[in-house]
Amino acid sequence: MISPSSSSALTGAFELFLGRREGLQRFDFSVEGFWRSFGAIFFMLPFFAISVAVEHRLRPEDVTVAGPTDAMFIVSRGLDLILDWTAMPVLLAIFARRLNIARSYASYIVVRNWASVIMAAPQAAVALLAGLGLVPIEFAAVVSLAIVGVMLRYHYQIVGATLGKSVGFRVGLVAADLALSLVLSGVFTQLFGA
Q1: Looking at the predicted structure, is the pLDDT value of residue 167 above 90?
Q2: Cα angle at 143 between 171 and 51, to 5 degrees?
Q3: Quick one: CA dihedral 160, 165, 171, 176, positive or negative?
Q4: How confident is the model at residue 55 (pLDDT cuts 50, 70, 90)?
Q5: CA 119, chain centre distance (Å)
Q6: pTM for the whole thing?
Q7: Dihedral, CA atoms, 33, 115, 98, 184, nearest 10 degrees?
Q8: For residue 63, what pLDDT band results from cuts at 50, 70 and 90?
Q9: Cβ 54 vs Cβ 127: under 8 Å
Q10: Is the pLDDT assigned to residue 113 strictly greater than 70?
């Protein structure tokens, strides 16, 4: 059963996705709300599981044979998710004063965490359709790329709504977050051969 605070935060995240800034009023920006927002990862797990299962199923045969075991593949993706989930909040916490976002840092992280659930859902849906053979892999790849573009714009909106700052700062933060995710994913792929 989803708690009222979680339901409110997810609703707020979806309202922000639709461009409604009043969605910010649905988040709990207290200290407890800040730490509770990291629990949003549990709402992401079903989407994550779908994406990983499809990725595993659609691996080329040579990778399936010579690559990591099923268990190692799942472990590598799980570790990647956890580190990706925590790395940017930790880095921003370290540099918050220098970036002059110390006062709004917690609000940004709260919204970013809950919005991550909204960001994960469409990618999982496309992966599921591809995994079931309902859409061609090539079509799914194009749609996934388009979804990434929409979600980068969404992230940009979140930065603007919570941190304000200049257009350059917003673009830079979104780009840095994406780059960090890609680097971490690449590191885990190299480490585990996944």
Answers
A1: yes
A2: 90
A3: negative
A4: confident
A5: 6
A6: 0.88
A7: 120
A8: low
A9: yes
A10: yes
Better-predicted residue by pLDDT, 72 or 39 = 39
The confidence score (pLDDT) of residue 163 equals 94
Amino acid at 27: F
Both tokens assigned to 64: 């399936």
Q: Which residue has the tokens 């990862």?
A: 41
107, 9 contact by CB (below 8 A): no
Work out the angle at residue 64's Cα, subtended by the Cα atoms of residues 185 and 138, and round it to the nearest 5 degrees. 70
- 123 is written with which tokens? 């990618």
Q: In three state form, how does the secondary structure of the chain look?
A: CCCHHHHHHHHHHHHHHCCCHHHHHHCCCCHHHHHHHHHHHHHHHHHHHHHHHHHHHCCCHHHHHHCCCHHHHHHHHHHHHHHHHHHHHHHHHHHCCCCCCCCCHHHHHHHHHHHHHHHHHHHHHHHHHHHCCCCCHHHHHHHHHHHHHHHHHHHHHHHHHHHCCCHHHHHHHHHHHHHHHHHHHHHHHHHHCC
